[in-house]
Design a protein that fits this description.
Shape: globular
Oligomer: single chain
Number of helices: 12
Strand content: under 5%
Radius of gyration: 17 Å
Distance between the termini: 31 Å
Order of helices and strands: HHHHHHHHHHHH
Structural class: mainly alpha
């Protein structure tokens, strides 16, 4: 699994939900996305949910609630993440739902690489989403994440987000073992990696790369 594949799967889900053959039928769309490679489906569900939320706002041709109620429970957190991405894209306030807040922060982190987390109007879940985005924008570079995260408020939330993305989406540079020292906190990084593992287990058998990241975090150099 690579970050590029995760990005491509997200975009594929977005296109399927925006103008695909099953784009106007919640059940058909969910079946089409669910038929993708199991390692790619979570990212595609996020993309599909983002597209439907954007369409709901612009076209009033679909309803996001129909997508959620038609989906298997295991996919609902990923739909909420995608909805949060759409809310950020549409310039709306931070959502109330926790997973949607994560998606909201993730998209903001992707769109604005000069962001400085923390401050009024944010939340711990938004900052965690922004931390996930850092893993993508730095292409999995632990030292670059350290420089951008810095210190101050919400540091642990950002690092948890970095670790979630590393374990869930991939570790292209093999930097997972460097994250505890970069973060200065092995526990928060390990918590993030294990959260990603729990998410994958809620879907079925975790891909091999997830277990490898969890192990790498556990054996990496201790924080100084």
């Amino acid at each position: 699994m690579t970050l590029r594949l995760a990005r491509d799967a997200f975009l594929r889900g977005y296109r399927m939900a925006y103008r695909g053959a099953a784009a106007d039928d919640a059940g058909a769309l969910l079946r089409a996305v669910g038929a993708l490679d199991p390692d790619l489906a979570p990212f595609a569900f996020e993309g599909a949910a983002m597209a439907w939320t954007v369409r709901e706002a612009r076209e009033r041709s679909v309803r996001f609630d129909d997508l959620v109620t038609s989906a298997e429970i295991r996919w609902r957190p990923f739909l909420a993440l995608g909805m949060g991405c759409a809310q950020a894209r549409l310039g709306r306030p931070i959502p109330d739902e926790a997973a949607a807040q994560d998606g909201y922060g993730f998209l903001h982190g992707l769109l604005d690489r000069s962001w400085r987390p923390g401050g009024e109007g944010t939340s711990r879940r938004v900052e965690r989403g922004r931390g996930r985005a850092l893993w993508f924008t730095t292409e999995g570079d632990a030292e670059a994440c350290r420089r951008l995260i810095g210190d101050g408020a919400c540091v642990s939330d950002r690092w948890r987000g970095v670790a979630i993305a590393c374990a869930f989406a991939g570790d292209p540079r093999g930097h997972a073992s460097l994250l505890p020292r970069a973060a200065g906190d092995r526990d928060v990084v390990a918590e993030g990696a294990r959260e990603a593992l729990r998410l994958w287990r809620s879907l079925g058998t975790p891909p091999r790369h997830v277990l490898e990241v969890v192990e790498a975090v556990d054996r990496g150099p201790a924080p100084q």
